[in-house]
Amino acid sequence: MKRNAFSRARKWTGRLAWIPALALANVRSETARPWNAALLAVFMALNNFVWFAIWWLFFGLAGSVRGWTLRDVTELYGVVAVAYGIYAAFFGGARSVAQLALDGGLDVYLGRPRSPLLGVLFSRSDPTGLGDIVSGIALIAWAAATPGELLLALGLAALGTSVVVATYVSINCLVFFTAAPARLFDQLFECFLIAATTPQIGLPMAAKLLLYTVLPAAFVGFLPVQILRSFSAAELGATAAAALVFPVLAALLFRVGLKRYASGNRMLDTR
Q1: pLDDT for 150-202, tens place per residue?
Q2: How far apart are the C-alpha atoms of 138 and 13, rounded to whole Å?
Q3: How far apart are the C-alpha atoms of 13 and 7, rounded to whole Å?
Q4: Whose CA is closest to 84, among 26, 27, 164, 139?
Q5: Residue 139, pLDDT score
Q6: Which positions ≥6 away from 18 have C-beta within 8 Å?
Q7: Which parts of 91-197 fold into alpha helices (H)?
Q8: Do residues 81 and 130 touch, judged by C-beta distance below 8 A?
Q9: How many other C-beta atoms are found inside a 10 Å radius of the C-beta of residue 120?
Q10: Which contacts qualify for 46-54: CB closer than 8 Å, 24 or more apart?
């Protein structure tokens, strides 16, 4: 029985081995010009630090706002930056779903004996994501009181990545049901990011419900920071559940959308 279990584990490991291989290949392709990739990452990190400087000036003048301090907002921005950075560096294809559906590019992935959605997700890598990851870790390290808090924040950021990717995929899947241009879905995702990096205090109940369901930005930034401020097993469980539920919903939406997809006759194309 142990041998059978071991052989099944090896079989599944072999089936999934293409995922890290594809992710690594795309990261390497984007860093083929290391100085260019490093420059993009540095500029993104500087952009994040500029935003931090704005918050630093704000809280220097206003003090705390409804119990939120500079430390809380720093952790908020750091967690979201790491979550977004992991998405951009390793799952950058999420932003391409709508455009691929519009120009028939999904044929390339439907013609492969692998999951088309995973193939799309791992098909792109953005080196600016590395700048987000580094700057996010730096911000969290500055605000964290203990090494344990730093590790917890990074774990929450990893869970947030799952929600970020699922949300971008879900937003892009709207292209299967509407005639909207791909740019509209990028703008919707930008709204999601703005909500994720904004302290969600004093919002009406309807807005909070929206940020925990349709546009689940709360699970990326606000709820993780609440956990860091005052640990709650229930909130941690809700964050972990969101990291599982929203990707499943995104995958189901993508599968339903494919039934409405019109082929572009590009089955024989290669990337």
Answers
A1: 999 999 999 999 999 999 999 999 999 987 888 899 999 999 999 998 887 77
A2: 34
A3: 10
A4: 164
A5: 94
A6: 114
A7: 97-103, 107-110, 116-121, 128-143, 147-173, 182-196
A8: no
A9: 25
A10: 47/131, 48/77, 48/81, 48/131, 48/132, 48/135, 48/136, 48/139, 49/135, 51/77, 52/77, 52/139
Q: Could you tell me if 45 and 131 are in contact, meaning their C-beta atoms sit under 8 angstroms apart?
A: yes
In the three-class reduction of DSSP (H, G, I as helix; E, B as strand; rest coil), residue 65 is classed as strand
What is the distance between the alpha carbons of residues 244 and 250, in angstroms, rounded to a whole number?
A: 10
Is the distance from CB of 81 to CB of 155 less than 8 angstroms?
no
List, in sequence order, every residue forming a beta bridge with 68; answer none if it has no partner. Answer: 65
State the amino acid at position 244 in one-letter form.
Answer: L
Structure tokens at 139: 């911000």
pTM: 0.86
Residue with tokens 């994040």: 48
Give the 3-state secondary structure of residue 270: coil
Nearest to 224 by CA among 126, 114, 78, 33: 78
Question: In the chain, which residue ranges form alpha helices assigned H by DSSP?
Answer: 2-16, 18-30, 34-62, 70-90, 97-103, 107-110, 116-121, 128-143, 147-173, 182-196, 205-212, 222-229, 233-258
Residue type, 50: V
- Give residue 38's identity as a one-letter amino acid code: A
The string of pLDDT tens digits covering residues 49-98 is 888 888 888 887 877 777 888 899 999 999 999 999 999 998 988 999 99
Q: Which residues contact 47 (CB under 8 A, 6 or more apart)?
A: 131
